[in-house]
Design goal:
The complex is a heterodimer. By secondary structure, chain A is an alpha+beta fold. Helix content of chain A is 17%, strand content 39%. Chain A has helices at residues 16-23, 28-33, 40-46, 49-59, 66-69, 76-89, 138-143, 402-416; strands at residues 97-101, 108-115, 122-128, 133-137, 150-154, 162-167, 174-178, 182-188, 194-201, 206-210, 217-222, 227-231, 236-241, 248-254, 257-262, 266-271, 280-283, 289-295, 298-303, 307-312, 317-323, 327-333, 338-343, 349-354, 362-365, 373-379, 384-389, 394-398. In chain A, the strands form seven sheets. In chain A, strands 1-28-27-26 form a four-stranded antiparallel β-sheet. Chain A has a four-stranded antiparallel β-sheet with strand order 2-3-4-5. In chain A, a hairpin with an 8-residue loop joins strand 16 (266-271) and strand 17 (280-283). The longest helix of chain A has 15 residues, at 402-416. By secondary structure, chain B is mainly alpha-helical. Chain B has a single domain, classed as Potassium Channel Kv1.1, Chain A. Chain B has a three-stranded mixed β-sheet with strand order 2-1-3. Chain B starts with a helix and ends in a 7-residue tail after the last helix. The chains are: A alpha+beta, B mainly alpha. At the A-B interface, helix 1 and helix 8 of A face helix 6, helix 7 and helix 8 of B. Chain A: Keywords: Repeat, WD repeat. Chain A: This is F-box domain-containing protein. Chain A: InterPro entries: F-box-like_dom_sf, F-box_dom, WD40/YVTN_repeat-like_dom_sf, WD40_repeat_CS, WD40_repeat_dom_sf, WD40_rpt. Chain A: Residues 8-55 form the F-box domain. Chain A: WD repeats lie at residues 101-140.
Chain lengths: 426, 181
């Protein structure tokens, strides 16, 4: 590759379409961090939404719904990156590092993964039918002895099964709901203990809880058809509705919009400022929605007859339906993928990943899980998956280690240029 | 096997199809003369140029005994390189494009592209784009991407002869234009 002084070849002399084509061969991380720094032209091309939108369409074959594309927070570059990450993360279930965490003595009905801002450490909170809450340090799970995995626990957290947990990003407090009709708020003290801050009695077994949308306010649902908004500071119920006819089993909150679904096969949306009437309403004759997951304006739901349905959250238009098994337990909508936990006809559960958008294709799946899973949680920033199981264990799935990925890349390079490089794995 | 009306019809339609196939691919066996924009002429046969969509279509539309194709967008030296690659890949089967960092190059292509200097490589990429040769396009882009791997922006500018924004601004100042004239 010689370049003589008077006749420097110019990559910049290539037309822009060719440059775009060239960019598709470079690793994604570089395209976002380093290449835009080379010159103004590259910068413009790489920050152009159309470049990334086209790549999403052609490379991943994803068709984004209108409500996603027209949302003000939508950035094709970020979405492309999330899709690429999700796809490579779950491409092969077997290459993950899986740790089985024992400790609870009954079904672990809720798991919550979070990362602390300051120290960038990963934790997992788990709540179980044995009425205890445990805090797991994931760094210890990856590297340490089993005794060090649980860093805190509360044996008498509730007087009944603990159903769900939610965390407030800004304050770091977390909330738990339980069969004993209470919603409790907790804090993790500086020396790592769990401290109960307050408790609200909501009248009957409390099912779901969510801390997003409005500061100092929680939304919770109960088995007695109630959806209540609780003020965290005064521990009082400030608003509620009883529009459902049966237990309210799924909840998703975004700002002022509260989406709920119940065993009465109705899914509805209310505004928290005016809980008396439902703004959106959907009645399904054959099945109910077991789980709701909301991202921007897309609502991903799992149905009790084994399907996954994607809705436009503004008007409940069905964007897509696909079948995954005989009963879909939970879904999670991530910008990069649809994560689905479903039971196949043969009564075994499988975790699968589908591409986002309106024409989803399966990107990967786990083998049949040995223990019946109750709930899963996925943290995209650290690519960790936690599954709480019916046999009281928790499965922590970490992405294949960085070393393994580098080795694979080096092996590829060696195959391409055998004579040039001496066999030297760095 | 019982010979019924239906099976007879099927046999007839199949027969008709076979006969039709022969004239369509006949052009592959003829030789063509390619004339580049700087006047250089090259001879190539149909199998060699079938990789290029543009040349292939042009060849199909030529009635024998005509056999010259004008290639205005490509200059002679680059055409030589293109033909060298085409001749090497004359007997390849259908190509399935694999976009992205996972693409692997065959040995000959890898070495050949690596030996080329940058200017020839860029001219080759422009020519392949004009002639629409998907396979060569993928391989040459992959080669450029390999050259860019692991380099920080400064090194990239050096290798590819890209000016920093300040240098470009300076050049623009010195060029004759409405404000300088």
């Amino acid at each position: 590759m010689t370049t003589d002084a008077g006749n420097t070849p110019e990559l910049a002399s290539l037309p822009s379409e060719l440059l775009c084509q060239l960019f598709t061969y470079l690793p994604n991380r570089k395209l976002i961090t380093e290449i835009p720094l080379v010159c103004q032209r590259f910068n413009t091309i790489l920050n152009d939404d159309k470049f990334w939108s086209r790549r999403i369409r052609t490379e991943h074959l994803i068709h984004q719904p209108e409500c996603e594309v027209s949302h003000p927070d939508y950035q094709p570059k970020r979405s492309f990156h999330s899709m690429r990450t999700a796809r490579s993360r779950f491409r092969d279930w077997e290459t993950q590092t899986v740790h089985v965490a024992l400790g609870h003595s009954a079904t672990v009905d809720s798991v919550l993964l979070f990362k602390t801002e300051q120290q960038h450490k990963q934790f997992c909170l788990s709540g179980s039918r044995d009425r205890t809450i445990r805090l797991w340090d994931l760094e210890n799970v990856r590297n340490g002895v089993e005794d060090t995995w649980t860093v805190a626990k509360d044996e008498t957290a509730h007087l009944g099964w603990i159903w769900n947990m939610a965390r407030d990003e800004t304050t770091g407090n977390f909330y738990t709901t339980s069969w004993d009709s209470t919603v409790k708020s907790w804090r993790i003290t500086d020396d790592g203990a769990l401290q109960n801050l307050s408790s609200v009695n909501v009248g009957s077994a409390a099912q779901c809880v969510s801390a997003t949308g409005s500061p100092n306010e929680l939304v919770c649902t109960t088995f007695a058809k109630r959806v209540a908004v609780i003020d965290d500071r005064s521990s009082e119920i400030v608003a509620e509705h009883k529009l459902h006819k049966r237990a309210v089993i799924a909840l998703a909150v975004d700002g002022n919009r509260i989406y709920t679904s119940s065993e009465d096969r109705i899914m509805m949306m209310v505004d928290r400022r005016q809980m008396g009437r439902a703004l959106l309403f959907e009645y399904s004759p054959s099945c109910y929605k077991s789980c709701l997951s909301l991202q921007r304006d897309q609502l991903l739901t799992s149905t009790s007859d084994g399907k996954v349905k994607l809705y436009d959250a503004k008007n409940f238009n069905v964007l897509q339906t696909y079948t995954v098994g005989s009963y879909t337990r939970q879904v999670q909508l991530d910008h990069g993928a649809h994560l689905v936990m479903a039971r196949s006809a043969r009564t075994r559960y499988k975790f699968s990943i589908f591409s986002p958008g309106t024409r989803s294709r399966q990107w990967g799946a786990s083998h049949e899980l040995a223990a019946e899973p109750a709930k899963f949680d996925y943290l995209p920033s650290t690519k960790t998956l936690a599954i709480g199981n019916g046999d009281s264990s928790i499965l922590f799935c970490f992405p294949p280690s960085e070393n393994a990925e580098n080795l694979a890349e080096n092996a590829e390079n060696l195959a391409e240029n055998p004579a040039e490089n001496p066999p030297n794995l760095e | 096997m019982v010979r019924t009306e239906k099976s007879n019809k099927k046999a007839k339609t199949q027969k008709v199809k076979l006969v039709q196939n022969v004239p369509v691919n006949e052009h592959l066996n003829r030789t063509y003369i390619l004339i580049c924009n700087d006047g250089q002429q090259f001879e190539a046969d149909g199998h060699t140029i079938r990789h290029s969509k543009v040349l292939g279509l042009a060849a199909k539309n030529l009635e024998p005994p005509e056999n010259t194709i004008q290639v205005e967008k490509v200059k002679g030296d680059t055409m030589k390189l293109v033909l060298e690659w085409c001749v090497n890949h004359k007997d390849d089967g259908p190509y399935v494009s694999k976009v992205g960092p996972g693409l692997r190059l065959p040995h000959w292509d890898f070495r050949w592209l690596k030996e080329m200097n940058n200017q020839d490589l860029f001219d080759l990429i422009t020519a392949t784009n004009d002639l629409q040769i998907k396979q060569l396009m993928d391989y040459s882009c992959k080669t450029v991407a390999n050259m860019a791997k692991g380099k920080n922006p400064e090194q990239l500018r050096q290798i590819f002869g890209i000016l920093t924004d300040e240098e470009e601004a300076e050049l623009a100042l010195n060029e004759p234009g409405p404000s300088n004239a």
